[in-house]
Amino acid sequence: MGITMPSRRQRRGNYSMFMGPGVFVLLGFSALAVDISLITMAEQQAQATADAASHAALVAYRSSASPAAGLTAGNAAANYIINRNQVGTGQADLTPGFPKYRIYDHATGNFLPPSGTTGINAVEVQIDRLDTNANAQQTLLASMFGVNSVDIDARGVTAHQMRAIMLVQDFSCSMNGSNMQASRTATTGFFAYLQNFQQPGDMFGITGYADQGVDNVGYGTLVRTDDPWLPLMLTTPANWSLIQSKINGICSRDNMKDIAGVTTISPGNVCNWNNAYVGPDPDSSTGSLGVCTNPSIGMQMAIDELANKGKTHKTYFRGMVVFSDGVFNTTNSKPNCGASAADSTAEAIIAADEAFTLHDINIWTVLLDTGGSINISQMEALERGIGDTYETNAAADLPAIYRTIAEQIPTTLVF
User: Fold this and answer.
1) Quick check: 218 and 277 in contact, CB under 8 A?
2) I need a surface site. Which of 38, 91, 129, 255 has the fewest CB within 10 A?
3) 347 with 382, same domain?
4) 148 and 281: one domain?
5) Averaged pLDDT in 10-residue chunks for the chain of 415 residues
6) CATH number of residue 387's parent domain
7) What is the pLDDT of residue 27?
8) Are residues 359 and 242 in the same domain?
9) Is 119 among the domain residues?
């Protein structure tokens, strides 16, 4: 008996049975790929918009003349951000009842409702694209399977960040005269910026160094745990006078005690002001600070302050600004500098590593190039975190540099 082969037409029909379901499956995978990507993008855009809106609202609130004006300005700022940012293929709505103005407890991490407008330091914003508001995100291909839209929502909270900042000041003899005057002016401006944009809990302090450290009564010291020139303290109005007097007293003739004014330094003797630091300090071999530059000692004193006082909880931003006008000392260049006879650069780098790795301290550095022994690479080696290095050959530039650094210090936390 012969075998009858199926016709070509019959074979094509068999393939069609598989192609129909196959196309449906391919469309399903395409819908998943396209719409899941769209929804993921929309969710990310919504979160970024909510974060930005809460940040803008808090800044506007804090910048206003009164709490009532702050609420109006904060609401307007939040709406401005929301209305100018796309979420998916459209714009989000501000969820009714938001922004909410709250009190953030830095120690516990809790957000508490305020009593009136007292103590507000955080703003919460919630946005959405909901089907109930006829504003849900429409799907592109999933509608073929009955999924026409997806709800999108996001919540952003911004709170004030408390800051603890230590300035590490070069007290060496080359800073005598106009350089120190400019440095004092820059430090005053830095502190003024913190006053003008004060956050509750902000702290500020100063350490000084040459080949030894400087404690708060003006004596040279080699002991890193002694109190620095200005121990870290709250920048409250009650402390403003004391902080300014310690800034004024840097390298003046009469700095054995806190002083209110600045005493003119004679340029005739490059180290004449150094003798003002003579005191009964058993760690001082010369009775004064000396002529050398060993920043690691000042940095270690700053680390102690920031680690012990500026680390009460993890939300504190801790920063250090290291200033110098000369090259760090090594065994070969300055053999009579006591503790600075070792490689001061290596010591400073060790201090910088300790500061950032163990205590999350960000470090900026400032180099005043006066035409003597300078090394920008030494200062750059000390940068840590978000810090940067600034160099100038004009002391008059220091206030602007310090202002730039002050503006870079974060003032908010976004949750």
Assistant:
1) yes
2) 91
3) yes
4) no
5) 58 56 59 79 97 95 88 97 96 96 86 84 96 92 80 95 91 71 87 83 87 58 61 89 80 44 38 42 46 82 86 78 80 49 76 94 92 77 96 90 93 83
6) 3.40.50.410
7) 59
8) yes
9) yes
Beta bridge partners of 153: 128
Distance CA(203)–CA(206), nearest Å, equals 11
Helix axes 178-196, 237-248, angle to 10 degrees: 170
Exposed/middle/buried for 105, CB within 10 Å: 0-12, 13-18, 19+? middle
Q: Which of 131, 159, 187 is the last residue of a domain?
A: 159
Q: Alpha-carbon distance 212 to 27, whole Å?
A: 75
Range of the domain at 143: 17-159
Distance CA 83, CA 106 (A): 31
DSSP per position, 302-368: HHHHHHHTS-SSTT-EEEEEEEESSPPP-TTT-TTSGGGGS-HHHHHHHHHHIIIIIH-EEEEEEEE
Q: Are residues 177 and 326 in the same domain?
A: yes
Question: Two tokens at 284?
Answer: 């001082």
409 and 316 Cβ atoms separated by less than 8 Å: no
- Distances in Å between the Cα of 332 and the Cα atoms of 52, 277, 329, 336, 342 are 54, 27, 8, 10, 9
CA dist., res. 259 & res. 250, Å (int): 10
Residue 85 token pair: 């940012």
Do 139 and 219 fall into the same domain?
no
What's the CA angle centered on 320, arms 318 and 322, to 5 degrees? 175
Q: Is residue 87 domain-shared with residue 175, that is, in the same domain?
A: no
Residue 235 to residue 317: CA distance in whole angstroms: 15
Does this model's pTM top 0.70? My answer is yes
Q: How many distinct structural domains can be found in the chain?
A: 2
Q: In Å, what is the CA distance from 55 to each residue of 43, 324, 389? A: 18, 36, 28
Pairing of β 122-129 and β 152-160: antiparallel
| CA-CA-CA-CA dihedral for 282, 285, 288, 289, to nearest 10 | -100
User: Is the same domain home to 220 and 355?
Assistant: yes
